Amino acid sequence: MSLHETPSAERTHIGFFGMRNAGKSSLVNAVTGQTVSVVSGIRGTTTDPVRKSMELLPLGPVTIIDTPGLDDTGELGALRVERAKRMLAETDIAVVVIDAAVGPSEDDKALFALLAERKIPCLIAYNKADTIQNRALLDENSIYVSTVTGENINALKERLGSFVKPSEKVIAADLVSPGDTVILVIPVDEAAPKGRLILPQQLTLREMLDHHIMTVCCQPEELPAVFASLAKPPKLVITDSQAFGRVSKDVPDGVLLTSFSILFARYKGDLSALVRGAAELKKLRDGDRVLISEGCTHHRQCADIGTVKLPHWIETFSGAKPDYTFTSGGEYPADLTPYRLIVHCGGCMLNEAEMNHRIETAVRTGVPIVNYGVAIAHIHGILKRSLAPFPEIQKLLETK
Fold first, then answer.
1. In what order do the strands lie in the sheet with 214-218?
2. How, if at all, do strands 214-218 and 50-56 pair?
3. What are phi and psi of 193, to 5 degrees?
């Protein structure tokens, strides 16, 4: 898919990190060929992460992220450093920019350790190479560049473009075969965006079409009529999580049933970890702190799933009155220890790196995490059925 056809969350994210005045912003401008970031000789000019999307062949569509200096000082500087480090969560490839005349600082070395710990591929760009006379030999992960003379800017882009792309993952195409029929159940209610489908529905529908899967879209109340009109049963029904309870009653036992949210849990994160987290819903007690987090930002409505429907379902299911914290977009607590449980959205607006980081942080901290689709299926007593397309994951329920 081209740049404009690829949603931001599906692009490879390349983060530029380093100390103040190392020339990160100048290098980002040189790589993108545009004045994306403000450049000056004043240390700490970049105060917030700046993003720019471009095509970087053969890697494909990418998002370039310019970040504040990691050695910023003062109260505001500490906030800028925190924002820069937060960008690591969504970084697929890191470029560490170092002033070639100065060399790596202790902060740079700490960053290398952090990148290694998180297993983020790294390329070191020794900038301002035009200012030094004697150059040391560099390893294959390092390169001299100059934004003044243009030295090795194209070589840097070629190095970045040659990073091995991850294997092509699919949302649901591996569950069906060409010629099969799939039904997508898409509620159109007050929460549905006017005139369009939400991203999981768009991406799933396009994938089905690309793989020559016959696809029928309908609203929940139309599902019985759709089944009656088909000459043979569909191979798979995919529903919005909010309609799980109703849809499960209308889908015959012999037909595979799952949700967009569960599919995205597998596509972008760790479905097994989220399934294990579902068991904790029944164990909630009054006053337990529950974090409900969404990867996107939107206007909350009276029937909002995250702040209204899920708390109601959780309380009805558990018989408890937890204490909720709600976050959205890039807001996600660095310290998860106060929480008894995390309930996260499907993550369609987050890239795979950030979604996995959020899950891994919860698991490492020892806080159970579950996503909307898995939680709703468990609450409605149909989690085992909704995991039938993934028998290796379904087995986790047998060990509880």
1. 214-218, 181-185, 236-239, 256-259
2. unpaired
3. -65, 140
SS3 (DSSP) at 26: helix
CA distance 28 to 46: 12
Please list, in sequence order, all residues whose beta carbon lies within 8 angstroms of the beta carbon of residue 98, skipping any fewer than 6 positions away.
18, 19, 22, 104, 105, 108, 124, 125, 126, 127
Q: Does residue 389 contact residue 256 with C-beta atoms inside 8 Å?
A: yes
- Predicted TM-score (pTM) of this structure: 0.78
Q: Output the CA–CA distances (angstroms, integers) from residue 84 to 26, 66, 111, 400, in the order listed.
A: 17, 9, 11, 40
* Distance between CA atoms of residues 355 and 339, nearest Å: 18
| Crossing angle between the packed helical segments 24-32 and 153-161, to the nearest 10 degrees | 80
- Dump pLDDT digits (tens) for 104-158: 999 999 999 999 999 999 999 999 999 998 898 899 999 999 999 999 999 999 9
- Peptide bond preceding 58: is omega within 30 degrees of 0, i.e. cis? yes
18 backbone φψ class: left, alpha, beta (φ>0; ψ -120 to 50): left
Torsion of CA 48, 17, 145, 34, to 10 degrees: -30
